[in-house]
Amino acid sequence: MQIDFMTLWDYQDPVTSATRFQTQLAEAVASGDLPLELELITQLARTHTLRHQFDEAHQLLDAMTPRLTAHTERARLRWLLERGRCFNSAADKEAARPLFEQAWQLALALNEDYLAIDAAHMVAIVAPLPEQSRWHELAITLAERSPDPLARGWLASLYNNQGWTLFEQGRFDQALICQQKCLAWHQAQGHQGKTFIARWSLARIQRAQGQHQEALNALLALQTEMQDAGEQEDGYLYEELGENYLVIDETLAAEPFARAWFLLSQDAWCRTNEGERLARLKQLARL
Known about the structure:
The protein is mainly alpha-helical and 287 residues long. The chain is built from 16 helices and no strands.
C-alpha cells in the first residue's frame, strides 16, 4: 500500500503532522505492511527533527535500521534522507552530506524521481557554495525531464534556489534567468503570492546589476499590485525601495527604510538573526 505523505504533512505544524503519521502507522502495523510501516517511521522522525528533538529522531531511525531489507528499499531511501536532515538541522553538515549523496544514488537506482530531487537539493544545502550550483542543476534537469508531476512540482523551488546560489556567486545574468523561470512557473500555476515574491527577487538582482531605476520601477508596480490584491505590507519590499532610492535620490530613502525597519523589527526571526540589518535600517531611516 502507498500513501501520499504530502497530504499528511504540515511543515509549519509538526505536532499535528506527527499525530497523523502515528494514526497511519498504527494501521500499517495492524495490517502487517512492513514497507509502509518503516516509511511512516521515517516521517515521524522528521516531525521530531523539525522540533529540534534530534535525539528522539535518531532513536526512531536507529530502532528501524535492523528491520530494513532488500524489500524495503524506499524506506531505506527515506531513512537516508531523514537521518541526513536530522544531522543537518543539528548543524552537522559533514555527517549529513554522505547520507544525502547515498540517497541520491539509491533514488536514481529505484527511479524515484521525487525523492532523488529531494536528495540533490539537500546536498546543495549542505555543500560549499562553489559546489551548490552543480547539485541544483542535477535536480533541475531531472525535474524537467521527469514524467512524474510530483517531481516536476519541485521546479519553482529549484529555480529559486539556483537563482540565489548564482546570485551569491556574483553570476547575476544567470541568476536572473533562473528567477524568470521561477516567476513563469508560478504565473502558470496561478500562485499570486509566490509570483509577488519572484518579482521582488528579480528586482533585487536588477539592483545588484546596477539597474536601479529599472528595479525601482518594478518594485513600485509590485507595491501597487500587492495593495490592490489586499496583501500585507512587506518589509523586504520597502527595504529594496530604500536601497534603490539611496542611489537615485537619497532624500527619498529615509521613509521606505523607516517602514522597512518598523515591519521587519516586528518579525521574531529578524530580531533574532538580523540584528545588524535592523540596526542599519534604523540608521538609514534616521530614527
